[in-house]
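Changelog note: in this version the structure field was regenerated for every chain. One regenerated record is shown below for reference.
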Amino acid sequence: MRTTKNPAGTDITTYCYPTRGCDSPWGRLYSWTTAMYTDTTATDCGQKKRGICPLGWHIPSDYTSCANDDFPLLSTYLGGDSLSGGAMKASGTTYWSSVGGSCASMGTCFFGVGAGYWISGMFWLSRGYGPLWSSFQVSSNNARFRLLLPTDATFSRYDDVKTMGFSVRCAKDDPTVSDFYYPSGTYTSAVLPAGGAANWGTASWHSTLSGQPEITLKARSCADINCTGATDWGSCDTTTTIANGASLTSGVPNCMNNLQRFIQYQVGLSSNSPYTVTPTFDDITFAYDIVPDASFIGGFQFIGSVKIW
């Protein structure tokens, strides 16, 4: 993060390494108390503490023995605590004192950097230490963080005093909003507006397949943002789900009705035995035509799409 204000718009204390500045990807350093803003420590698995993160994001969770908290989930997906750091670190020696990791460019991977730390008025270990705060307070004085190092591929869990200035990387509140899914399971999107009464076209997306994983997509149209009266997911596409690039109405049975103004989708991800790699799914686009208002004079028709990044 690089913010200098809390969610209320008030200035906060941050630390900016003087020899390199605070531009991306270095960012600023924060004490744990500053990072958490008015939030208290996480006290159970899965709790989302916003802290100084933007609306819809939170300080990564790392409560004791919670496999589905943010940092453990990320680490497991990338090979576990002994290997995941290598995939998370920026490559080369610009941001690390030695070889770095395998993440070649921002926007394609985590791109972790050796931002160093601040303590008692001094900055230390730029390019040699990459600590990231979590939302868990271990004691009244100490909080949990994860650490990237230039010399190995680990992403280890440690505790340190809350007055240390460490980096903060925010996590998205709901993976169904970010529309990038990687663990096996079923995920349901937010209700998405088309911008008017729509004649629905096709659905297309990007996915990374390794081995023979399975991706299934269901979609339903809705009359309002709350999907009031929409068909239950259990009744949608129980025989044939929608294929990549196919018509939204190709499911059997389908739950898409023309002239409705909203759409919601549900994606199921699985990896068939004996394959162990789960699929990724992102960048989904729904094509549709907006039906002109009856009071509009002429034959204009808007062609549009809902595109999720």
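Spot check on this record: The chain is about 5% helix and 30% strand. The chain has two domains: 1-173, 175-307.
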